[in-house]
């Protein structure tokens, strides 16, 4: 009787093990089928875009690995030439440098960026950059909270320095574009390398821009500048292919501000900036890309400039730029 019970338990244990193995294999197969189906959908979307393949194509590989060095900077100038209360200031931010590694699979990308200066405690600012560049449309979303501006200010004929952390700037910039010649002209060929530009082509572009900004200075002379505006406009972009495996890109997107509210509070007095046409937000981009088989190397540049107000009353000039050196390999 004891032997029969042991045999029964042994059979049950073997059966349970076989069922677990079979269930695991079924789940693994189901997971594999789901992944395979998802890969098929991504491949279909990736390789069957509505493009003129004589001008732009997709890379034939699925994977792309990238290494990037990013350097950015910003400056701010405020000027009021009112006869009874002249004021002028200029400040530049310390350069920000980051190193990043990224991987893309069929157009889906993730990246990890490191700021060596921030890791060593030498850089305390915060910046968030979100970008999407497509053939049809794209955008930049940039938020910056900076205290590392240094420069000078001049008030009623007296100039003094602006040491670090005396000026704090919070800025949100949003830029959007829409390309008409999306079948032959490719922004991502220049900036994300998810397409390859085979022949030269250009496109007219619609654009919209927005900016929100708060600038505060501390010390003997305290001030607070509030800026918010929205602009719409149009521009042009061109991808030039001077030779095989080369690409040079340049584009300019000027927008005219249609909504603006700016005020400066200094020494307890508030000055409101009156709208004066033309006030502009300009976004310019450039790129150089060189391919070597499945490898590529290049540089890109994005520049944003804002001009609002007038010198006789109050004018504000903002500029922000970012340049990138990159190397990638397609697998």
List keywords for this structure.
disordered N terminus; globular; 17% helix; 3 helices; alpha+beta
What's the helix and strand layout?
Layout: H1 2-47, E1 56-57, E2 63-80, E3 87-93, E4 96-105, E5 108-114, H2 116-119, E6 126-133, E7 137-146, E8 149-155, E9 158-162, E10 167-179, H3 187-191, E11 196-197, E12 201-217, E13 223-240, E14 246-266, E15 269-273, E16 280-292, E17 295-310, E18 314-330
Give the helix level as a range of percent.
10-25%
Low-confidence stretches: 1-5
Computed over alpha carbons, the radius of gyration is 28 Å
Main beta-sheet annotation: 16 strands, antiparallel
Structural class of the secondary structure composition? Answer: alpha+beta
Proportion of residues in β-strands: over 45%
Structural features, described:
- The protein is of the alpha+beta class.
- Helices cover 17% and strands 59% of the residues.
- The protein contains 3 helices and 18 strands.
- It has helices at 2-47, 116-119, 187-191; strands at residues 56-57, 63-80, 87-93, 96-105, 108-114, 126-133, 137-146, 149-155, 158-162, 167-179, 196-197, 201-217, 223-240, 246-266, 269-273, 280-292, 295-310, 314-330.
- It has a 16-stranded antiparallel sheet that branches.
- It is globular, with a radius of gyration of 28 Å.
- The chain starts with a helix and ends with a strand.
- The model is unreliable at 1-5 (pLDDT under 50).
Précis, in short:
This protein is α+β, with helices and mostly antiparallel strands and 331 residues long. Helices cover 17% and strands 59% of the residues. A hairpin with a 3-residue loop joins strand 17 and strand 18.
